[in-house]
């Protein structure tokens, strides 16, 4: 509802609303099961590609595509390295696909800011819970929270941006 009330263009509001639906699904699935299925993360990636193709300006689209392919190649290299080490279906692979999907939905600076926010929240959560970073935990909800903060920032443009 918060996204629908913004004074941003309709395409941006629909973009944020669709992305928040995917983020809710991915965050809840990772928090509940500790696992992000490949079907969900690939659907998130493909929807992000289609949404970016619709909402981005034609000049920005090739740059956005090149950056997304670069992040995809880096993450795919990590996944392939895991495949050769017989740890192909290990924890964290879904998080890597989710990060590639975040790159498809957001541009690179916003994705990097969402990633930094998510990692900071994840580390702070571990430090306050007292696991000492030994217990692991779901990263998906923190990635979703970082993206939602970026979406709110995009739609409402706080005073320090203007």
What can you tell me about this protein's structure?
With 162 residues, the protein is mainly alpha-helical. It has one domain (11-156). The protein contains six helices and no strands. It has helices spanning 10-33, 38-55, 60-84, 93-105, 108-129, 140-156. α1 (10-33) runs antiparallel to α6 (140-156), α2 runs parallel beside α4 and α5 (108-129) packs across α6 (140-156). The longest helix has 25 residues, at 60-84. The protein is globular. The chain starts with 9 loop residues before the first helix and ends in a 6-residue tail after the last helix. The mean pLDDT is 82. Residues 18-120 form the Prepilin type IV endopeptidase peptidase domain. It holds the Pfam family Peptidase_A24. Keywords: Membrane, Transmembrane, Transmembrane helix.
């Amino acid at each position: 509802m918060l996204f629908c009330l913004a004074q941003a263009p309709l395409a941006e509001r629909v973009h944020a609303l669709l992305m928040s639906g995917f983020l809710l699904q991915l965050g809840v699935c990772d928090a509940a099961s500790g696992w992000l299925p490949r079907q969900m993360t690939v659907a998130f990636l493909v929807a992000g590609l289609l949404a970016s193709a619709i909402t981005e300006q034609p000049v920005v689209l090739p740059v956005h595509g090149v950056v997304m392919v670069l992040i995809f190649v880096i993450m795919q290299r990590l996944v392939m390295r895991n495949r050769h080490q017989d740890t192909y279906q290990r924890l964290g692979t879904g998080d890597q696909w989710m990060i590639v999907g975040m790159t498809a939905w957001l541009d690179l600076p916003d994705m990097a800011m969402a990633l930094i926010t998510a990692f900071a929240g994840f580390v702070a959560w571990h430090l306050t819970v007292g696991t000492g970073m030994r217990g692991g935990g779901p990263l998906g909800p923190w990635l979703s929270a970082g993206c939602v903060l970026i979406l709110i920032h995009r739609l409402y443009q706080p005073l320090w941006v203007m």
